[in-house]
Amino acid sequence: MSRFERGLIITPGTDRQLGAYGLFRPAPSQQRVLELPSHTLTVKSADPDLLWVGFDALCGGPLGQADYLTLAGMFPAWVVDGVPPPDVEPAGNTAARTAASAAAAWHRFLDVMDILCDRDIMLVLISRSHLDWDAASRPAVPASPDAAALAGIADRLAVLRRVESDEQLQEEQTSGC
């Protein structure tokens, strides 16, 4: 099994779930600013073995392929938290702008997934909500910001194990999985 395939998708991301896998939310004092080829990136933690970054910081801004490749060369494992559900419909008067921003973020996220998969970097995704890229990529879901990007994300992440509740974690620990 590759390092990428050993990754996890954890929802809702309780401290108990994270602790079971040796993960602990970074303290504010662990925040770092990383210099990348085109921009700086503020991350929650940047230890030699682990990058911990929020989804919005990683995918919601102007970072590009060169930035992601640089990060992939620096960290053998990543935690991305605050991953939004892919089927959230934009609200308010800025819906068109928000939908365009969401589509761009999902495309950047797909770029990140491609790089992490190709470089065999372990990934842990944390979200408060269930993440179903398969359902969101179907054309029948009008809230989908970009069905092709979501389908690509679903394909890459299909190999990751999901931990979706403290109860599931308890069952796995009891059964020895």
Estimate the helix proportion, in percent: 40-55%
Structural class: alpha/beta
Strand content: 15-25%
Mean pLDDT metric: 85
DSSP strand count: 8
Order of helices and strands: EHEEEEHHEHEHHEH
> What's the multimeric state?
single chain
How is the biggest beta sheet arranged? 6 strands, mixed
Low-confidence segments, given as residue ranges, are 89-97
Q: Termini distance?
A: 16 Å
Counted by DSSP, the helix tally is 7
Explain how this protein is built:
- The chain is of the alpha/beta class.
- It has seven helices and eight strands.
- It has helices at residues 15-20, 55-59, 65-74, 95-118, 133-137, 147-157, 166-175, and strands spanning 8-10, 32-35, 40-43, 45-47, 50-54, 77-81, 122-126, 161-163.
- The strands form two sheets. A six-stranded mixed beta sheet has the order 4-5-6-7-1-8. A two-stranded antiparallel ribbon has the order 2-3.
- The longest helix is centred in the middle third of the chain and has 24 residues, at 95-118.
- The chain is globular.
- The model is unreliable at 89-97 (pLDDT under 50).
Describe the structure in brief:
The protein is of the alpha/beta class and 177 residues long. Helix content is 40%, strand content 18%.
Write the layout of secondary structure elements.
Layout lengths: L7 E3 L4 H6 L11 E4 L4 E4 L1 E3 L2 E5 H5 L5 H10 L2 E5 L13 H24 L3 E5 L6 H5 L9 H11 L3 E3 L2 H10 L2
Helix pairs in contact: 3-4, 4-6
